[in-house]
Amino acid sequence: MHPFDAFLPAALAASGTQPRWADGDAALPSLYLSHGAPPLFEDAGWMDQLFAWAQRMPKPKAVLIVSAHWESAPLSLSAPAAGTPLVYDFGGFDPRYYRMQYRTPDASWLARRVAAAMPATEPVHTHATRGLDHGAWVPLKVMYPHGDVPVLQLSMPTHDPDRLLALGARLRDLRAEGVLVVGSGFMTHGLPYLRRADFLGTAPAPGWSRDFDAWAAEALAAGDVAALADYARTAPGLPYAHPTVEHFTPLFVTLGAATAPETPAATTIEGFWMGLSRRSFQVA
Questions:
Q1: Cβ atoms of residues 34 and 279 within 8 Å
Q2: What is the predicted pLDDT for the residue at 201?
Q3: What is the pLDDT of residues 152-173, one digit of tens each?
């Protein structure tokens, strides 16, 4: 049996009875997750960890997610209509992944709310047809398998840490309204530098991946936003861990949306997958 098929029955049952966020509840945390792409569905332990994380929180009223796979300026939102078709922005995987669906409810109210949170100098374009890409729907299909939470994806208009922190800060109030704000990337993403042993799981993770992960873990545990923002100058292994930085920089939206960005982050998932760091965390 495929690991996702084995995971799904118990997850559907538990998610169906999960308490929902209600007015008066505490603000939801903001999350950064390493999203895993389709192979997430083949890793039972990883799915269990991600689903357990979702279960420790009330089911949100909605999810607003920034994915590494949508770099676009001006700032844009995915189509809010219910059941908008997904984006299958990957290649070479099992055909079953191109048939998967994740039909979520209408999110028009969230689109209006996000647009209202932005200054006049940064208007938001709402797409009529663009659906969720795999950096959004793959992990959310594990976290909320019924597809019963409205979801919108927000584009990443820059990689500048200060601008992304400011963008996150504009989204901060949404957390107190039951919206889960998520940055979706991968803590290391040096795909061109992986070895055959990494794919086979027969060797420790590459040194550049372990070094970058340890540096990030230390900075996150200390709430050292300045060190994280200076990653281009100080992060060990950067050219290999992130030959392009789009899988790291959603982290700054997550931190910006925190009540206090310098709050130490709570790691929820760690370890390595095919040599890449799966580190994921939340901040209050």
A1: yes
A2: 86
A3: 999 999 999 999 999 999 999 9
Q: What is the dihedral of CA 174, 179, 183, 186, to 10 degrees?
A: 160
Count other Cβ atoms within 10 Å, centred on residue 239.
Answer: 10
Alpha-carbon gap, residue 90 to 276, rounded angstroms: 18
The residue type at 51: F
Which of 229, 198, 203, 205 minimizes the C-alpha distance to 216?
229
Torsion, Cα of 214, 219, 221, 224 (10° steps) = 180
Q: Tell me the pLDDT tens digit for each residue of 174-200.
A: 999 999 999 999 999 999 999 998 888
Q: Is 121 exposed, middle or buried (0-12, 13-18, 19+ CB in 10 A)?
A: exposed
Could you give all domains of the chain from N- to C-terminal order, each with its CATH number? 29-283 (3.40.830.10)
Other residues' Cβ atoms within 10 Å of the Cβ of residue 153: 28
Q: What is the pLDDT of residue 153?
A: 98
Q: What percent of the chain has pLDDT over 70?
A: 100
Mean pLDDT of 87-107: 96
In angstroms, the CA 39 to CA 36 distance is 6
Say how far apart CA 120 and CA 282 lie, in whole Å: 30
Report which residue type is found at 121: T
